[in-house]
Amino acid sequence: MATRIVELRRSALTKNNLLAAELRMRFQRAGVLVVNLFSNPGSGKSDFLQRTLQQLRDQRRKVAALIGDEGGHGDAFWLGGCRAPVRQIDTHGHGHLKAEMVASELRSLNLREFDFLFIENARTQIRRHDLGRHDLGEDLRVALWSVTEGEDKPAKNAKMFATADVAIITKMDLAAGLDFDVMKARRNLRAVRPKIAIFETSAKTGQGMQDWIEFLLAKRVERRGIPAFAHTSVH
């Protein structure tokens, strides 16, 4: 029985990786930079995403988002206030989105119309064995954690950050009141992922957000070789 379970898991992983490779080629052909956001509950991921979408729109970038959830619809409707296309994906109890879920939802989007596509993974406790297993064809994997979770978060959940390209520390407006040691948090991150890009942000005050936006714009040019203002019409 145990051998059969392992075989089934490997088969599912292989299927996901093949679909993810197809998605990656599709994203590349469309010229859209895809960002996969994941975190534990309470990180402020939705607030961060809303601010990101709005600031990119303010800079005349065309953006869209796919929101994974285990059944609710609040985040998608709320993020829709950014006046950007937002699609809800019901994960039906799964902790993370899978490539086939993303592929299915993309039928309603013309990827060539967008500069950036953000994928917000389901709001659920991250399971260690899931991390790194569900490639979605993204360009950037972004791990978020808030100052309320403490400086030792990277050490406690090392695999979450070891698979990420970027780490976002959120709710920095609360850091002083919580005696959050930013330098210690950075050291803990570097111990897990030495070259990871780190941003200290607050969706409430805007701290660090412009640096994050400029990083995204530069990555789009770097990854796609596309002029910074390839798309300019925002409705």
Detailed description of the structure:
This protein is α/β, with parallel strands linked by helices and 235 residues long. It has one domain (2-224): P-loop containing nucleotide triphosphate hydrolases (Rossmann fold). It is 39% helix and 17% strand. It has eight helices and seven strands, in the order H-E-H-E-H-E-H-E-E-H-H-E-H-E-H. It has a seven-stranded parallel β-sheet, with helices on both faces. Helix 2 packs across helix 8 (209-224). The longest helix is centred in the first third of the chain and has 29 residues, at 2-30. The chain is globular and about 45 Å long. The termini are far apart.
Profile the largest sheet.
Answer: 7 strands, parallel
The CATH topology label is Rossmann fold
Strand content: 15-25%
Count of helical stretches: 8
Poorly predicted sequence stretches spanning 5 or more consecutive residues = 1-9, 227-235
Q: How many structurally independent domains?
A: 1
Structural class: alpha/beta
Shape category: globular
Based on the structure given, which CATH architecture is correct?
Answer: 3-Layer(aba) Sandwich
Proportion in helices: 25-40%
CATH class: Alpha Beta
How far the N terminus sits from the C terminus, by CA atoms, comes to 55 Å
pLDDT averaged over residues: 82
Element pattern in H and E: HEHEHEHEEHHEHEH
